[in-house]
């Protein structure tokens, strides 16, 4: 009766999970555990229980009534009172002590007989949810040699074709795997037991027919000794690892969410087996010597060589599981055995599969130690021609990749990038790897890398513009862009001497937008260096023309090409690269002047005009540098000290009406004194009339002068140009530094006393307004008003 109720409830919960959970559970065991484990009802809508040591599960209900209904049925099966919120009985203290005491005799197993297989299977299944019971069961199985007894019964069941017994054995062996014990695995995976264990796992009760795993392992799967292995222990370890890997991948059912952590020891068993195999092969010098000898022997047939390369590839893949220290020893051993010369031979062959495997091996070596590879290729360059150098072979395979998506070429380009990256190059006291290797690379390898680019850009547009060619050229440009960013004079000399940039910009006419953008990115990287050697090369060859053409051909489309080109010109404007600014405006302004949806090109024109003004008025440029260096004013303390010295001069030392002159100057008569004053007044009147004229023109045009402080309004440009010759005179009205110059729109004449310091202060205040200038001027006026009458008289007479 209880069994019927339990099955009915099982079906109820099963359909409940199907309806509310959105899918079927992976196995009924997770539902079945719902009735075996202690449960707890929480918050009226949750039923919570533990599935394993690290897993807590819960059934969540939308309404309290549904939760209560399922809770009542669970309690009915377990014989508990539905009014309680937990179905677990209080554990007797003596029983708890017995479970905690691991030195106790442990779990008592039924005698290993055919008639008791069902009882054994139930015992194993009931022990899995509890960590303590799992531990006790594992100890019992280990101490009593129970696994071998079970395998003997397996042979009896097979002979008798007892399918029911075989199904029970499947559940028992699967449960032993879930105990996750290394000691049990060592017994099960031993040479005498492992095939019987696989045989037990062939009889899955959920399948209508048994699988033929043993037949596959013994007849179909063949063990190939590429190089004969003399060590029997090593051979046995290889067989064991293969079979255990097969059990994990093919024989055992896919573990459920609750069982994944129960197979961690199985993963570890395979991992350490691989580590042990690598170590044993590494120590066998005869084996490795024969391996590399046959790899490089021309007499070796292609099939044999392919097997050797595949073995070496798997050997290197196993090494990735080693600890760093052991991996270092592994690759040093391979290097001493001559793996790089062997790869050079293999990569020169016609077999695509062999070359592909060799490329994978090469990637392991580059990722491990790029310096080792660089040292080898520099040494071989002294003996071999450029065509058979290892790096050139890699470049050729990248160029000749037959994959439409260029998957292999992308991998090889990444390896080349690692090899030419200065960040991982060593520098010692005696030599610099960066200098030596880059010199070698640009001399022996760069022409091979750029050959497709140069061959495809002999005319004004790409000679081949199919998708695969465009992808290859994009990869080459990506590597060249990396070189521009990280290499110095090597790539600069190569680009300028080979006219690489002009050839790259031919690709701006490609129909593939990604390739045109790669070409533009290459030029943008060069301009970003702000190197005048590059700039002169660009201007001399008029290398902005392809960019401007592409910009105009793009029209009004707002896309990545449009934004990238504008950003490049904006960079030139913001960084104020004078040579490129002048070149662009002088040669391409007519094509760009109508672009008004951004202010980039008008800003470039303004930069250009300001630059021309500074060239036409060199004193203005020198005055800018003075103002920039001295913050546009003399030190206030120096002015105060000079004024104090003058005012502290004793009146008795001077006669009334006599000017104060330095001792070295000759006495001047009244005409000599009044002459410069009259000239100054004439200049002042001329300045005032010019200021009024400028103000009138500005008001008529309705425009303000540019915000840049040292530029002039549009109304004064022609005036300044016509007066450029006169501006060279310090005292001329058109001179930037003179008080009457229109180049100082903010300067005003306060008084005669202020004009005494015209070259140090008055002319400078007009260029840049400081907030505190007005305060200083007010202080000067106050100081003048408080002077004694005798001092004022002397000042006015001077």
From TrEMBL:
Any GO CC annotation of this UniProt entry: nucleoplasm
A Pfam family matched in the record: PP4R3
Biased composition (Low complexity): 744-753
Domain of life per record: Eukaryota
Region forming the signal peptide: none
Residue intervals of the PP4R3 EVH1-like domain: 40-78
MF annotations from Gene Ontology: protein phosphatase activator activity
Domain Serine/threonine-protein phosphatase 4 regulatory subunit 3-like central: start-end pairs: 119-610
PANTHER family from the UniProt entry: ATP SYNTHASE GAMMA-RELATED (PTHR23318), SERINE_THREONINE-PROTEIN PHOSPHATASE 4 REGULATORY SUBUNIT 3A (PTHR23318:SF3)
Family as reported in the entry's similarity comment: Belongs to the SMEK family.
Name of the protein this chain belongs to: SMEK homolog 1
Originating organism: Taeniopygia guttata
Name of the encoding gene: PPP4R3A
């Amino acid at each position: 009766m209880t069994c019927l109720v339990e099955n009915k409830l099982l079906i109820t919960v099963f359909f409940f999970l199907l309806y509310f959970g959105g899918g079927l559970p992976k196995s009924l065991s997770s539902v079945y555990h719902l009735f075996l484990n202690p449960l707890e009802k929480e918050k009226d809508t949750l039923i919570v229980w533990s599935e394993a040591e690290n897993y807590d599960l819960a059934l969540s209900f939308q309404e309290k009534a549904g939760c209560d209904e399922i809770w009542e049925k669970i309690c009915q099966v377990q014989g508990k009172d539905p009014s309680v919120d937990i179905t677990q009985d209080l554990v007797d203290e003596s029983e708890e002590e017995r479970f905690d005491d691991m030195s106790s005799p442990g779990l008592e197993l039924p005698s290993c007989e055919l008639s008791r297989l069902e009882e054994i299977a139930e015992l194993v299944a009931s022990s899995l949810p509890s960590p303590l019971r799992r531990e006790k069961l594992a100890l019992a199985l280990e101490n009593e040699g129970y696994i071998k007894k079970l395998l003997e019964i397996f042979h009896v069941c097979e002979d008798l074709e007892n399918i029911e017994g075989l199904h029970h054995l499947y559940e028992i062996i699967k449960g032993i795997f879930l105990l996750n014990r290394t000691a049990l695995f060592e017994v099960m995976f031993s040479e005498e037991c492992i095939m019987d264990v696989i045989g037990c796992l062939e009889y899955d009760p959920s399948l209508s027919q048994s699988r033929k795993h043993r037949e596959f392992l013994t007849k179909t799967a063949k063990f190939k000794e590429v190089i004969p292995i003399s060590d029997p222990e090593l051979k046995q370890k290889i067989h064991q690892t293969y079979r255990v890997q097969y059990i994990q991948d093919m024989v055992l059912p896919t573990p459920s969410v609750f069982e994944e952590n129960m197979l961690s020891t199985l993963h570890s068993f395979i991992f350490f087996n691989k580590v042990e195999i690598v170590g044993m092969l590494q120590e066998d010098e005869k084996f490795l010597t024969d391996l590399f000898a046959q790899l490089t022997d021309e007499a070796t047939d292609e099939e044999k060589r392919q097997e050797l390369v595949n073995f070496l590839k798997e050997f290197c893949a196993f090494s990735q599981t080693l600890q760093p220290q052991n991996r270092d020893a592994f690759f040093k051993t391979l290097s001493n055995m001559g793996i790089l010369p062997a790869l050079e031979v293999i990569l020169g062959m016609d077999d695509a599969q062999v070359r592909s495997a060799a490329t994978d091996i090469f990637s392991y070596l580059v990722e491990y130690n790029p310096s080792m590879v660089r040292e080898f290729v520099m040494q071989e360059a002294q003996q071999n021609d450029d065509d058979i150098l290892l790096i050139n072979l890699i470049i050729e395979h990248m160029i000749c990749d037959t994959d439409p998506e260029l998957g292999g070429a992308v991998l090889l380009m990444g390896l080349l990038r690692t090899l030419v990256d200065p960040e991982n190059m060593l520098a010692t006291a005696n030599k610099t790897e960066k200098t030596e290797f880059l010199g070698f690379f640009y001399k022996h390898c760069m022409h091979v890398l750029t050959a497709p680019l140069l061959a495809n850009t002999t005319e004004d547009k790409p000679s081949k513009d199919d998708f695969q060619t465009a992808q290859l050229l994009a990869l080459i440009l990506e590597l060249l862009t990396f070189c521009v960013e990280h290499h110095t004079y090597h790539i600069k000399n190569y680009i300028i001497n080979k006219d690489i940039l002009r050839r790259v910009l031919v690709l701006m006419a490609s129909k593939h937008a990604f390739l045109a953008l790669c070409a533009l990115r290459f030029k943008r990287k060069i301009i970003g260096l702000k190197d005048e050697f590059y700039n002169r090369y660009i201007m001399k060859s008029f290398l902005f023309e392809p960019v401007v053409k592409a910009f105009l051909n793009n029209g009004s489309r707002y896309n990545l090409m449009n934004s990238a080109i504008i950003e490049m010109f904006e960079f030139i404007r913001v960084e104020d690269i004078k040579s490129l600014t002048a070149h662009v405006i002088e040669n391409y302004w007519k094509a760009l002047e109508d672009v008004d949806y951004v202010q980039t090109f008008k800003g470039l024109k303004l930069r250009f005009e300001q630059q021309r003004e500074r060239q036409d008025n060199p004193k203005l440029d020198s005055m800018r540098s003075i103002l920039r260096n001295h913050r546009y004013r003399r030190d206030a303390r120096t002015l105060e000290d000079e004024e104090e010295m003058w005012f502290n001069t004793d009146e008795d030392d001077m006669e009334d009406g006599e000017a104060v002159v330095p001792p070295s100057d000759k006495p001047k008569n009244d005409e000599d004194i009044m002459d410069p004053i009259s000239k100054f007044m004439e200049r002042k009147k001329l300045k005032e009339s010019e200021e009024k004229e400028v103000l009138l023109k500005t008001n008529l045009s309705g425009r303000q002068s540019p915000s840049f402080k040292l530029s002039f309004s549009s109304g004064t440009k022609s005036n300044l140009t016509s007066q450029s010759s006169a501006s060279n005179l310090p005292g001329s009205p058109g001179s930037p530094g003179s008080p009457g110059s229109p180049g100082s729109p903010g300067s005003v004449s306060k008084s005669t006393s202020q004009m005494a310091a015209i070259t140090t202060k008055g002319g400078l205040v007009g260029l840049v307004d400081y907030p505190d200038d007005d305060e200083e001027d007010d202080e000067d006026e106050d100081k003048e008003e408080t002077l004694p009458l005798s001092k004022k008289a002397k000042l006015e007479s001077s």
